[in-house]
Amino acid sequence: VFDISSLSWKNPTYLRDMPEERCAAAAVVLKNKYLVVIGGSYYDGSAVTASCLLYDIWSNHWSSKQSSTDMIEARQYHTAAVLDGKIVVAGGEGRDENVLASVECIDADALLEYAPLHYPLPTL
């Protein structure tokens, strides 16, 4: 992680607590609170994935997302950007190392709908 206030690289321990280690993934920031890690391949190289991981920057907590928010195609070495409330994912390499010429959109609100609560809801 690059700290823009000190202009230096940091190795925060909380990033090591990801539910699944990934490489060749894309990442975007949503609502200045969530880091979304999209696709990539498992660190051991066993498979390319279509799933998303969500990191809540404020509560320092990782979570896996519902399969309904997964991309249609598993991909690695792709790019992603946030545009009009959607995460736009483009290109990359799919399973069997085939190059992808497709673009997918993930609805950011649907993804955050599954963000875990870290404080109990008030009772009535």
UniProtKB/TrEMBL annotation:
SUPFAM superfamilies: Kelch motif (SSF117281). It comes from the Eukaryota. InterPro entries: Kelch-typ_b-propeller. Keywords: Kelch repeat, Repeat. Gene3D superfamilies: Kelch-type beta propeller. This is Uncharacterized protein.
